[in-house]
Each structure stands twice: as structure tokens, then as C-alpha cells.
Amino acid sequence: MLEEVLTHLKLRPGARIIDATLDGGGHTTAILERSAPDGRVLGIDRDPNLVTAVRSTLAAEFDSGRLLLASGSFQALTRIAAARHFEPVDGILFDLGLSSYHLDVSSRGFSFMRDEPLDMRFDPSDATIETAADLVRRLSAEELASIFRSYGEERFSGRIANRIVAQRERAPLTTSGQLFEVIAEAVPARERWRAGRSAARIFQALRIAVNDELEAVSEALPQAVSLLAPGGRLVVITFHSLEDRIVKQFLVAEKGAGRMHIITKHVLRASEAEIESNPRAASAKLRVAEKK
């Protein structure tokens, strides 16, 4: 939804924009182009590997000072912006969820389509964060089932959690392939042909739990509003209902408090053409609000 993002940010020369989810730098690149010659972007990402890659691909913009980069969670948005004297700003973008890099390249077990170490941390260098393997090893069946229900909305949460606990008594689950096998075995026989659907929800739930994603969003949104200049835009793309509910409720509350004006009366979705070229965009929802 690149064009929608660029349009709703109301970009102009000299604009100061925070890309709170830098990823591969696609949004940042386009924002720098649209805000030329003197627009600036502060790009933030939890994954230091992505920050390093963008610094290389956008070296000219980084060296010129138009691009500032920070490795860290957007939970620390105000601190990161203040440390770089990058406030107030004209727009802030959150493109939430999982990136194609993490699914296809990172080798951290985000996908059950290949057998990889069951890690799922966005920042693999942060030893203070438990991996997905740590969670399935340590948590009780009741705790695992709660995560699967709350973050994955999986109807076979209890069966899958119990099977995980039974399996780990025989041998630890350390790879995404091993976890998928347990999930497939736990799903009722009549449903086993579509075990991938349950696996997708379980993997999503573990990823959210590992990275504390929903709490991060809840903490970052008020910080974003505080950083925006009057007339500044907050643009948020979500990919599942739990994130979108947090964003929607936050914007409604901010509107009620008289701080924000909601621009998108109805959530915006990717076009059919974009979904055809990028099937992962099918679940994307875009919401925009402007600071009064």
C-alpha cells in the first residue's frame, strides 16, 4: 500500500518523517524521494541486521544526513527521537507485523515452510528475550493454550498445547519443523488436511508472545501522538485483527479527547492488483489520523 501511505503522509519538501518499522527500507526510500531535496527520515527497526542493510543500500542519504537510523524497539519512540533531536515531526508510519525478510531469509523459525531454529526474536542479539523454543520448553500447557487462544485465536489451542508438553517430555522442540509436526499430530484427524492453518495461527501467537508485539503497539501509539506537530499524520498498517483493534480503539479515544482527527472513516485495504502481485497484502488494513 505504498502509494496510499505516501499520499496520506502529505509529503512535501523538508518534511520530517519517522518510519518506525524500517524493514528493508522500501517506505523510507519512497518518502525520501517524495520529500526531496531536504526532507528527512528517522528509520527505526528492532532487527539490527535490517538497519545495517538499509544503511548500506541508502548510504548516500545516510551520509548526507537526510536519513537517520536507529536499532531498537518503537516502544522507545520518544527516547530514540529525542536522542537524535528529531522532534516534532510531520508524520509517523507504522507498518506492523511480520516482514518478508523474517519469513523468507532470517532463518529464525518464523515460518513452518522450512525447518529452522525455533527462535522468532526480531532482535536475535537480545539475550534477555526468550526464544519460541524457550517458551514451548518452559510454559505449562495452560499457559501455552492461553497464548494460542489470545494471540492466535486457534480453536484447538488446548489439544496442541497438551501435545507440545507431552512431546517435550520425550525430546525438546528446537526447530520449526518439529513444532509443525506436533501441531499436525494434535489437530483432529478430520482437520489434518488443513493443519497448516492451525500452524500459521500457532506460529503467529508464539511470535507475538516472544516479541511482546501487542504491548509494544499500545505503548508506542501515545508516544507517536506526542511527537507529531499540529497537522502531522499518523499512518498505521496492520495485518491481523488484534493489532487493528488496538489501533482503532486508540484513534477513537484520541478523537474523543480532541487530540486527533480520524482521516480514514473506513479502513483502507490493498487493491486487487497489489494483492495479486503480493498475496501477503490481502490482510493489510491502513488507518490514518491527523493531530489537531
Describe the protein's architecture and organization:
This protein is of the alpha/beta class. The protein has two domains: 179 residues, Vaccinia Virus protein VP39 (Rossmann fold); 105 residues, DNA polymerase, domain 1 (Orthogonal Bundle). The chain is 48% helix and 15% strand. The chain has 14 helices and eight strands. Strands 1, 2, 3, 4, 5, 6, 7 and 8 form an eight-stranded mixed sheet that branches. Helix 2 links the parallel strand 1 and strand 2. Helix 9 crosses helix 10. The longest helix has 17 residues. It is globular and about 60 Å long. 43% of the residues are buried. The model has no long low-confidence stretch (mean pLDDT 95).
Helix/strand layout:
Layout (H helix, E strand, L loop, with lengths): L1 H7 L7 E4 L6 H9 L5 E6 L2 H10 L1 H6 L2 E5 L5 H7 L5 E7 L4 H5 L27 H7 L2 H12 L4 H12 L7 H11 L8 H17 L1 H15 E11 L2 H16 L3 E3 L5 E2 L2 H6 L7 E7 L1
Parallel strand pairs: 1-2, 1-4, 2-3, 4-5
Antiparallel strand pairs: 5-8, 6-8, 7-8
Helix pairs in contact: 8-9, 8-11, 9-10, 12-13
